[in-house]
Write a structure and sequence with these properties.
- With 55 residues, the protein is mainly alpha-helical.
- Helix content is 89%, strand content 0%.
- It is rod-shaped, with a radius of gyration of 24 Å.
Length: 55
């Protein structure tokens, strides 16, 4: 009986929910930035190589 009451209290508790949501959003933004940086770094390296070969 007490375990059931404790389980219901844990399910109804929402105090840490906002923090978890912000952490998930930050993780998604970070993964997107990492994916974009991989492509961007190759383009930058190609431009520097082109400029270096021109000189």
């Amino acid at each position: 009986m007490k375990a059931l009451i404790l389980l219901r209290a844990l399910v109804d508790e929402e105090s840490g929910q906002d923090l978890i949501e912000y952490a998930l959003i930050a993780a998604i933004v970070a993964l997107g930035a990492i994916a974009a940086m991989g492509s961007l770094s190759n383009q930058i390296a190609n431009e520097f190589n082109t400029i270096g070969n021109s000189l």
